[in-house]
């Protein structure tokens, strides 16, 4: 098979790592890719939103399977464009990717089909939102309706903060058109857990659990980011939680989308909050989480291509999805100043060390080649992942491996997986 992966982050590197292991794959391309993916695939200088160019390239190269990793092209309808051109593609079509593309849609879906989530109201008028906040309980959560690189969520502790948040999202348009509509949501407390799942339109198979760390700084301080590190599995995702979610969340979501005429094939990411009243859905994503993919995919025993093809063909019920009985931790190495402003183009050393050690991975997110030298090219630069027999061992291994990598401005959180110690 010839495979094309669309995207260029740590998630796509983790996907490429799994695809490269498949005996079915002869040639892999990635658009646009990065310096790490370039070791596994031929990187093509086409952006993820350049649909016409991607379709033309896929036809020219006789691509057998296109895998779309990123949210923007999925929400924009890239799968539909590939399918129109007769190219087999993995991911939800545009009418299903709305599950992530519109928070207002997903909240209304959960309300309609009785899927547990936080109480909320949707607003497309700033004055009405401000009037509602005068009567609201605090803290409260404001969410831009559309995609915002994982940063369109504001937790407001006071009415003044919330008013400023409405201005930021709806009036100043900090997140562009994503803020035309806003969700105002009850603030939930509890443990967060991420559960990724494969879906073929009717059957859902969940992967091993994980937990992300969104805030930029230690102790969950600082601004929201795309994710500063993850661990898998989550010790807080118990058998009881799993049974509840299978009954009241996972299958109900797949069935709800089908009932709405929006058959979902691809990945559904369930962001869950384990509250005192039971698990509730924080958010849906319509693709692999990043950096969750970097701790979940290396632990998967199945051939990823087999599972993807079963999702496309509607035969996922015949797949026995299996994961290693171990743990993994990912620590993101970022450029100091992320997620606001940071320097790019800084040389990176120490990457070859990962080739010498089994169970250690370095997934590239923001990197590129400057001649023969790999340099930084983004806020999140690398995802350093390590396995271990236990979460504590995996955590120690991951932090040890962060020391192998050197670049100026290197920044990371030092408490990824600290919650493990409390489990």
UniProtKB/TrEMBL annotation:
One of its GO terms (molecular function) is metal ion binding. It is an enzyme of class 6 (ligase). Pathway: Purine metabolism; IMP biosynthesis via de novo pathway; N(1)-(5-phospho-D-ribosyl)glycinamide from 5-phospho-alpha-D-ribose 1-diphosphate: step 2/2. Keywords: ATP-binding, Ligase, Manganese, Metal-binding, Nucleotide-binding, Purine biosynthesis. InterPro entries: ATP-grasp (IPR011761), ATP_grasp_subdomain_1 (IPR013815), PreATP-grasp_dom_sf (IPR016185), PRibGlycinamid_synth_ATP-grasp (IPR020561), PRibGlycinamide_synth (IPR000115), PRibGlycinamide_synth_C-dom (IPR020560), PRibGlycinamide_synth_C_sf (IPR037123), PRibGlycinamide_synth_CS (IPR020559). HAMAP family: GARS (MF_00138). It comes from the Bacteria. GO terms for biological process: 'de novo' IMP biosynthetic process; purine nucleobase biosynthetic process. Pfam families: GARS_A (PF01071), GARS_C (PF02843), GARS_N (PF02844). It catalyses: 5-phospho-beta-D-ribosylamine + glycine + ATP = N(1)-(5-phospho-beta-D-ribosyl)glycinamide + ADP + phosphate + H(+). Gene3D superfamilies: 3.40.50.20, ATP-grasp fold, A domain, ATP-grasp fold, B domain, Phosphoribosylglycinamide synthetase, C-terminal domain. Its EC number is 6.3.4.13. The keyword ATP-binding applies. Belongs to the GARS family. Its cofactor is Mg(2+); Mn(2+). The keyword Nucleotide-binding applies. This is Phosphoribosylamine--glycine ligase.
């Amino acid at each position: 098979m010839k495979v094309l992966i669309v995207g260029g982050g740590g998630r796509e590197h983790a996907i490429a790592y799994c695809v490269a292991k498949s005996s079915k794959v002869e040639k892999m391309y990635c658009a646009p890719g990065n310096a790490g993916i370039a070791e596994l695939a031929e990187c093509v200088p086409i952006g993820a939103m350049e649909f016409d160019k991607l379709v033309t390239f896929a036809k020219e190269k006789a691509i057998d399977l296109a895998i779309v990793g990123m949210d923007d092209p999925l929400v924009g309808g890239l799968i539909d464009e590939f399918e129109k051109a007769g190219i087999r593609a993995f991911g939800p079509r545009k009418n299903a990717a709305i599950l992530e593309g519109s928070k207002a849609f997903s909240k209304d879906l959960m309300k309609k089909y009785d899927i547990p989530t936080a109480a909320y109201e949707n607003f497309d008028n700033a004055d009405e939102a401000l009037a509602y906040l005068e009567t609201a309980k605090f803290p409260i959560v404001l969410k831009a309706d559309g995609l915002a690189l994982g940063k369109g969520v504001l937790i407001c502790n006071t009415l003044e903060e919330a008013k400023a948040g409405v201005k930021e999202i709806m009036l100043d348009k900090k997140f562009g058109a994503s803020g035309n509509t806003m969700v105002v949501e009850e603030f939930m407390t509890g443990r967060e857990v991420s559960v990724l799942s494969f879906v073929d339109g009717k059957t859902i198979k969940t992967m091993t659990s994980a937990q992300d760390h969104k805030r930029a700084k230690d102790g969950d301080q600082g601004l929201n980011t795309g994710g500063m590190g993850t661990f898998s599995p989550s010790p807080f995702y118990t058998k009881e939680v799993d049974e509840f979610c299978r009954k009241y969340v996972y299958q109900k979501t797949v069935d709800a989308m089908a009932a709405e005429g929006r058959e979902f094939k691809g990945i559904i990411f369930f962001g869950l909050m384990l509250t005192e009243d039971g698990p509730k859905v924080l958010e849906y994503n319509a693709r692999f989480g990043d950096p969750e993919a970097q701790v979940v995919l290396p632990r998967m025993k199945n051939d990823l291509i087999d599972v993807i093809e079963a999702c496309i063909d509607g035969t996922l019920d015949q797949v026995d999805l299996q994961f290693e009985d171990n743990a993994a931790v990912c620590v993101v190495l970022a450029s100091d100043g992320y997620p606001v402003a940071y320097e790019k183009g800084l040389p990176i050393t120490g990457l070859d060390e990962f080739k010498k050690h089994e169970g250690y991975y370095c997934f590239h997110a923001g990197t590129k080649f400057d001649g023969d030298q790999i340099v930084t090219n983004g806020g999140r630069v690398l995802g350093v992942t390590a396995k271990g027999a236990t979460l504590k061992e995996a955590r120690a291994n991951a932090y040890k491996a962060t020391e192998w990598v050197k670049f100026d401005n290197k920044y990371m959180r030092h408490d990824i997986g600290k919650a493990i110690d409390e489990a």
